[in-house]
Amino acid sequence: MRAMDKILYGVAYYDEYMPYDRLDADIAMMKKAGINLVRIAESTWSTLEPQEGIFDFYHIDRVLKAMTDAGIYVIIGTPTYAVPSWMVLKHPDIMVTTEKGRSLYGARQIMDITNKSYLFYCERIIQKLIEHVAAHPAVIGYQIDNETKHYGTASPEIQREFLGYLKKKFHNDVEEMNREFGFNYWSNAIHSWEDFPDVRGTINGSLAGEYEKFQRELVTKFLAWQSDLVREYKRKDQFITHNFDFEWRGSSYGVQPDVNHFHAVTCLDVAGCDIYHPSQGKLTGAEVAFGGDLTRSLKRNNYYVLETQAQGFPEWTPYDGQLRLLAFSHLASGADLVEYWHWHSLHNACETYWKGLLSHDFAENQTYQEAITIGRDFQKLGESLIHLKKENKIAILVSNESLTALKRFPFTGGITYNDVVRWLYDALYEMNYECDFISPEYTCFSKYQAIIMPAFYCAPEETLIRLKEYVREGGVLVGTFKSCFANENVKVYHNTQPHILRECFGVSYDQFTVAEEVGLVGEYCKVEDRELVNGFMECLRVESGNEILSYVHENWGQYAAAVINSYGNGTGVYLGCMFSKKLLKKVLQNIMDKANIIQNAGSDGFPVIVRSGTNTQGKRIDYLFNYSGEKQSAWCPQKRCQELLSGKMLQEKDLIVIPKWGVIILEEVL
Amino acid sequence: MRAMDKILYGVAYYDEYMPYDRLDADIAMMKKAGINLVRIAESTWSTLEPQEGIFDFYHIDRVLKAMTDAGIYVIIGTPTYAVPSWMVLKHPDIMVTTEKGRSLYGARQIMDITNKSYLFYCERIIQKLIEHVAAHPAVIGYQIDNETKHYGTASPEIQREFLGYLKKKFHNDVEEMNREFGFNYWSNAIHSWEDFPDVRGTINGSLAGEYEKFQRELVTKFLAWQSDLVREYKRKDQFITHNFDFEWRGSSYGVQPDVNHFHAVTCLDVAGCDIYHPSQGKLTGAEVAFGGDLTRSLKRNNYYVLETQAQGFPEWTPYDGQLRLLAFSHLASGADLVEYWHWHSLHNACETYWKGLLSHDFAENQTYQEAITIGRDFQKLGESLIHLKKENKIAILVSNESLTALKRFPFTGGITYNDVVRWLYDALYEMNYECDFISPEYTCFSKYQAIIMPAFYCAPEETLIRLKEYVREGGVLVGTFKSCFANENVKVYHNTQPHILRECFGVSYDQFTVAEEVGLVGEYCKVEDRELVNGFMECLRVESGNEILSYVHENWGQYAAAVINSYGNGTGVYLGCMFSKKLLKKVLQNIMDKANIIQNAGSDGFPVIVRSGTNTQGKRIDYLFNYSGEKQSAWCPQKRCQELLSGKMLQEKDLIVIPKWGVIILEEVL
Amino acid sequence: MRAMDKILYGVAYYDEYMPYDRLDADIAMMKKAGINLVRIAESTWSTLEPQEGIFDFYHIDRVLKAMTDAGIYVIIGTPTYAVPSWMVLKHPDIMVTTEKGRSLYGARQIMDITNKSYLFYCERIIQKLIEHVAAHPAVIGYQIDNETKHYGTASPEIQREFLGYLKKKFHNDVEEMNREFGFNYWSNAIHSWEDFPDVRGTINGSLAGEYEKFQRELVTKFLAWQSDLVREYKRKDQFITHNFDFEWRGSSYGVQPDVNHFHAVTCLDVAGCDIYHPSQGKLTGAEVAFGGDLTRSLKRNNYYVLETQAQGFPEWTPYDGQLRLLAFSHLASGADLVEYWHWHSLHNACETYWKGLLSHDFAENQTYQEAITIGRDFQKLGESLIHLKKENKIAILVSNESLTALKRFPFTGGITYNDVVRWLYDALYEMNYECDFISPEYTCFSKYQAIIMPAFYCAPEETLIRLKEYVREGGVLVGTFKSCFANENVKVYHNTQPHILRECFGVSYDQFTVAEEVGLVGEYCKVEDRELVNGFMECLRVESGNEILSYVHENWGQYAAAVINSYGNGTGVYLGCMFSKKLLKKVLQNIMDKANIIQNAGSDGFPVIVRSGTNTQGKRIDYLFNYSGEKQSAWCPQKRCQELLSGKMLQEKDLIVIPKWGVIILEEVL
What we know:
The structure is a homotrimer.
Chain A: E1 8-12, H1 23-32, E2 37-40, H2 45-48, H3 58-70, E3 73-77, H4 85-90, E4 97-98, E5 101-102, H5 116-133, E6 139-143, H6 156-169, H7 174-181, H8 205-233, E7 239-244, E8 247-248, E9 252-254, H9 261-264, E10 270-275, H10 286-299, E11 303-308, H11 322-333, E12 335-340, H12 366-385, E13 394-397, H13 400-408, H14 417-430, E14 435-438, E15 450-453, H15 461-472, E16 476-480, H16 502-505, E17 507-508, E18 512-514, E19 519-522, E20 536-538, E21 541-542, E22 546-552, E23 560-567, E24 570-575, H17 581-595, E25 608-614, E26 620-626, E27 632-635, E28 640-643, E29 649-651, E30 655-658, E31 663-668
Parallel strand pairs in A: 1-2, 1-12, 2-3, 3-6, 6-7, 7-10, 10-11, 11-12, 13-14, 13-15, 15-16, 16-24
Antiparallel strand pairs in A: 4-5, 8-9, 17-21, 18-20, 19-22, 22-23, 23-24, 25-26, 26-31, 27-30, 28-29, 28-31
Helix pairs in contact in A: 1-3, 5-8, 8-13, 10-11, 11-12, 14-17
């Protein structure tokens, strides 16, 4: 069997970081835990190239040999996201220059990824490394760089490149730029390209948004360039992946602001990501599902979780059962690899308290004990669980441009783009509706029965026209406040809002405000429920369709808060403000019911989450997860199936009791 | 009739910012709303001088022509508060250098207003512009620059100028400076002028205060210089004004720290300002009254509100009735012009969500609808309402120097100078006592029956002597804690506090502290009212007069908190600490009663505010405002008068019902 | 009698800062208050050397003369902690360069104490000054510099010196450094010394910790160098001291992060410090005791309080009785000098509101009145109270290295090293257990019956072995969480924790977490007491000994929270987490009872604090302090003694009533 057709259970392994020679001992512990993959070499450039042009593959070679002997697969990471000090001392301009000036050496991810000296060294180390390892039988694939971003690069050189980019965008017509970006404001207009100022000081949201878009494409280009380099040397059967990450709020939270994942993924064979999430009493599975759904959507295929926490931060040390619950949660979203960062806890530097599977003493701690059961079950059930496929009926439309623009033009009250995305995603997740993610450039809207469009602020007309067509032909479109407001250049549309989709949603508005104790009332919500608007709100006028929610307020009571409208063969729903997730779930359930979109069966929703798909044998797989510290009841959602862990056979509606932090896996019996 | 003898109702208008040609459509909408003035050109330098030395008055010309045709007056703003990028690329030192280094290009108000290159370009654009427009009949006046400040300028050049200023101040005697500023402390003394260090690092409050005073005078000089330039070209019948603004706390709050308005106003024909204020449920009218009273006091004459919000920030979108209430509130303080910033909401850049009278779609929104009624009533009632004059009996003494010093030596608990000013002002405002503002240099104290002196920390002996004389001759002086403490050089007086006014107030103290649960008791305040001291408190000993308030505390109970004292023919009142506005109102009412100073009649105070004056026909005008969302009762304060909006005749004590957020205007019938 | 054999009662005096000639008037007031010492010259360099190489001892001379005439002793401070501006203008690199770049001139303590130009000027002014004053009879000693620290110095020059230091530490073997500091992580390894990067950007906790240790030794060297300079010129009978200070949290709080007091003290004759503390209702005496115990421990001898507050910040203005209570509190810890910073309140600069004994008006305020009583009693009782000696049975082991490391690897919840130190110290203080402080290098552990070891994170093996031996031989060792975790290079130990002391404490653990509502239960603590873990907690497994506290939690209930264990002839106690001080006191009392360690008798603990010692006549002295605003009862702890202030004789168990904020002093009658 190909390595890629097994469930891969891995760890990031750093022979270089060990306080003493642990290789044999570690491998024995890995084997005991069923670990069948390690990722190595990532971020170890100063070990691989200790002096300029001198290469040392000692650690690589000994680990590869030992892993081959042990039958453990290896992913080789290119080491480029942390640079050696000799390189920076020789070429100080390798350090990224941002709004705050030039970075000091020390951390990772502080170089200018467009700097020519950096690229020269990158190219050489990648070539040397891949050439050295490509033929090795244990090596099944490559991770290029790690969590790559643009690091805010704004050196004079890159700004010059940006100027060229703008000239091209505006057909060399500086006045077109002035108009489109509104540069006349505050005397920002330029009338000759050489007057273009340092972009770091700009107060113009259009220019700032364009620069961030440009910066994101630097990441796309850099990864494509690395991918091409690796591809020259790698074997055909070896894959290329990358470890994408998400907006970080102390844990993985939302759409990544600094990378366009949909663009950057094109150079990869397999999409990959890392997912770090709250744990203990705060574990809900939402981040695992969110990150998984998003990463799966990138190539519309299975993906790799290249990093996730074993113990992680001290406040994340998992309760008994949680590590196991999480491992299967990843598979349930379509992951084919679950890899811990990292094998052992570090004894020095700065991530000493981001603990690995092993603690600092390398003993068999409680978490490792649980990993043993996971490895065993992955091995046992691998054939049934690998390559899980999904055909979701709902898509969430996400937009890097909107995220960026709303950083500059925030909702009042500290709410951000990703809060709106997660508000909707989490409601669906808790209701057991699974979904994909799509970008504004996605062209097959009709594949979905419903599209959810959170705060689609920077909305190109082209996309809006296609969305309108989608509804006319029968689609359900759920939009929110702050959607369709500006174009792709963060220029606000100057006709009635919501632009283009006004008839589709059956609403218009020309004023909005921020709620001070504004209530909500409607079909699913009585005045005495005391549901309140959360922050920003649009003063909607209903032009067709039905008011779902109205405002309760001395002055704003005259306006609608949410409207549902028939348009063509489809339905438009517009939510003019944010409110409790509880009420949102009622609203969404109603919409889904009308549209005849059925959620995964088996539970009444969170904390029992049901995730579903089809395995390589064409059988339906249902995962039932209990994300709580109390045992929970559920029922069998399939006609006839087998509970894979126990082997028990079940029939539809059979009662299922899931222990606290437990998981049940059902495989269809055909 | 002269334009200046009509009530002007205006908007800031930017043809340059329009997403498409709106001029005719906009003018039609302005006419419909009774708008009879626009301010243009302000901040559009990059449009007016697209390349160095190339001038383009396209937008000016077309707007002037269209406005003339429509009978709409025009104020021309000099465009100098936002610089074009070509200028900065050529002369990087135009960007202001502050404590944080040199600014990056992008925002407005980031230039060094003393930089010679900047001044060269300013002079040229002003001359070209004014020369170009001066003869135009629609142009009735000029606004020089906008919200000018010193922007923290601290370049080596300006510091050299400051050194010259210090030499002059100290008669070239460096030891005099050492003594007066206390430079021996921490080895800061210099014994030769060339040893004068970079002022940006100073820890000396006297030097820092002097530097800020010097910086404020840079603003005075800059405006005077612009005024002289404009005056060379303008017609005699055209006025010069400037848009002053106030300490900003998300809205206009208090005395402007960075400009000495009393000094800077001398070069103007008409004082002007912008006032932005909380709205919706937080609208009280206090900021409109405060800003108006202060600006009216500058030239002791009517003034222009050159900017105020129409919709403003999303959280400010006015409730029905509020825009109208506010328009008349400005007139009631003596404004002759009410101008919105701005006509239309911007589609790009950074103030996209500071919404104008029109929303982004240019439709007739709810706020615009209300503006129509204002324009109509301004036109109808203009003759009665224009040039309202006041003869206030109370003055509040404000001091830039005290404000600056108390930034360095703050009250504990985050209270600042302007908090004390507003504590007293707002109490008077809510009691329907109107007042003027005066500076320490003001010489006609006897014009007022009472002077209120909040935290007059930096008090020149000369002023204190005049204040003492004022009381001896019959005036009422209400002083607070932290008054008369230091001289104009922020040197603490070294004899018994309060300096010079000790006998006038009948108190002295040599200790102070910060209250931890210290109560207050007195004639208007029982122990069981649980009135508490708010922060800083002085341990007053009564030397003559009567204790109004005493402290309630195990240790501080031995001291007085507030004292009233007869001195000569007058009265001194000293408040040793801050406390609730409710208690303050009782204290003030008592003082005013004793001094026989009567507030405006017609209501029992906030939320019904009465503002009063005399119109050009010598008739008394009373405005009764209801700053609440409930209808309120009031009574007719005049013998015989006409309610101007309804035409109804009223007699003294007649009941008046004011609708929520409503206004009643009464004109005396002689 | 030698000056040093009297109780010294002093003030910092600055003739240089006076607004007018006050010398005679001040001396008269000092005499009235019994003040017998002034510290002068400190921080007045710009007065002493007004221009480069020109010296002016005018103020020194006149003050020395006047003090001699008045019989007041003088300490001369070297003026070097605030530099004149001429020096910095000539040698800009005297200003310290830190992570944030080079400082601006203005404040004190902003120079690079290793800069050669600075040292040149220091040497000259010290030589000139000491030569000038040494023979003067009033001068009894010298304070070198003031509150010296390294000010974050990180200039290229000092980094080069650091590189030399590292080469020496690692025997010129760069790979040894890579291994010990874990530099392979994130590609930080260097393989040639010239690749060593700017240390300011490092993310490596070992390197950062080593750099801070190196910086602390710069302070040690600088003070030793100054001491040597002074020693060349001073008379034999004159002492050298220094004013150490503590971690600052708006008042003196804990172990000083930037100086190793145990090292720096070696060049001094007498240890000195300043202690500033909360006052009024927040006065507990804990800071006075903490700072005193720590400073007394440095030379294991009496010490000088070179600065403490008279009035201090406005919120510190003492209640009646508190100044007096505090003066005796210092003596009770072993101070021989109590000196106020400062005589008079400053009229300019930045510490205007750090008020001295006199207010700005130089009048006899309430605080000064109280000082008169102190001076009188110091004089009267001096012979009994001077040179108080203590033989404490408990020592607290403190570690600069642990403090530094835990800044980089903080406990979750904002708790820091010094919080743990104070948690334990304050509990002992409130229970009337007195203690000394020791460093990890201290070699006579057996002097103590118990050693308390708060968060001894960076624990050299050598010290741990000695501690183990200490317990085996009968000592009581109380350790906490985060102890024995890493070595002196902040490298985490890679075997079972707690390293080396596992058998001594009878516990081990390999996981830890952060408590979310984790309860505690045990012998002194029922579940219903609802005692909760505060933040970080270790999951202890008991290997021998008895569980004192267990966790109450669904997942963590399986682990112990605190354990007591017999080991050899001694006892190890390990506290795995932090909890309330109330519970800690119960735990500690129990440990002390078992170990037969008796606290000072006379009260049931705070707010009545008993501090004890032996005077020069070999008589026991007991101080009983009432740190509260209510009178308190205590009892006579001695067989037979005299109450020194009243002269009354007392016998054991006699009732003693202490007035609010009062003090009782008992001298043994032999």
